[in-house]
Structures are given as structure tokens and as C-alpha cells.
Write a structure and sequence with these properties.
mainly alpha; extended; transmembrane
């Protein structure tokens, strides 16, 4: 597996961790709101990092909205921002599936192609070219 092919599964892992942290922080905030947990002190460095991440997310959402709105109108621009979590979930599912298929081929399983019909896989032929 080439280094560029590892980006998808790694992205899926990072996104999964990010969404898990959002859920965990939501539960901890809920517990703090009802007095079940004391508030934790946030260091200035962590606060700066969180603000930088929030600013980056807002920048990405704004760019996505503006570029989509320029082509398809402001309604679609607003919808493009709302589709960001859906796109991330699709990336997580595709990354998990790709990683599972890769592990299956490492264990000796057959290579499965979804969209393109291949009679011979390039790695399976002697010259690397089917013909």
C-alpha cells in the first residue's frame, strides 16, 4: 500500500476520534450543567488551540458556503455547510471499508473491484499489463 493510499483510513480514524470527543464533551457538559461534575480549568494554551480550531472550522465552512453559493445560489451555499458532517460520516464509513478490504487482502483474500471491471489485476500479471 502506497503512502498516499493510507491517507483515507487515517482521515477516517481522526474524524472518528473527533466526533467521539464531541459526544464525550457533550456528555461532560451535561454532567457539569446538572452539578454531577465540577468544571475543569482550561489552560491558556489549550484555550488558544481550541479558538484556532474553531476559527479554522468557521473559515472552512465560510469558504465552502461562498464557493458553492457562487455556482449554485445562496440556498445551496447554506446547505453545503450543513452537508459537512454528512460528508465526514461518509468518509469514515468509506475509510473503514477500505481498511477492512486491505486487511482482508493481506490475509490472502481476493481483491474485489466495485466499479471498474478488471479481468486481470495489474499486480497479478507477470508484466504488470493485461493484454
Amino acid at each position: 500500500m502506497a503512502l498516499r493510499d493510507r491517507r483515507g483510513p487515517l482521515t477516517a480514524i481522526v474524524l472518528t476520534c473527533g466526533y467521539a470527543l464531541v459526544v464525550i464533551e457533550g456528555l461532560l457538559g451535561f454532567a457539569w450543567f446538572y452539578g454531577w461534575r465540577s468544571e475543569m480549568a482550561i489552560s491558556p494554551t489549550l484555550k488558544a488551540m481550541l479558538l484556532l480550531c474553531l476559527a479554522s472550522l468557521l473559515w472552512r465552512g465560510t469558504c465552502r458556503m461562498v464557493f458553492t453559493a457562487r455556482e449554485y445560489g445562496w440556498t445551496e451555499g447554506m446547505r453545503a455547510v450543513l452537508r459537512m458532517p454528512v460528508a465526514n460520516i461518509i468518509v469514515i464509513m468509506a475509510g473503514r471499508r477500505a481498511l477492512a478490504r486491505y486487511v482482508r487482502t493481506l490475509r490472502g483474500g481476493a481483491i474485489a473491484w466495485d466499479k471498474t471491471r478488471h479481468d486481470v489485476h495489474p499486480a497479478g500479471s507477470e508484466a504488470g499489463v493485461s493484454g
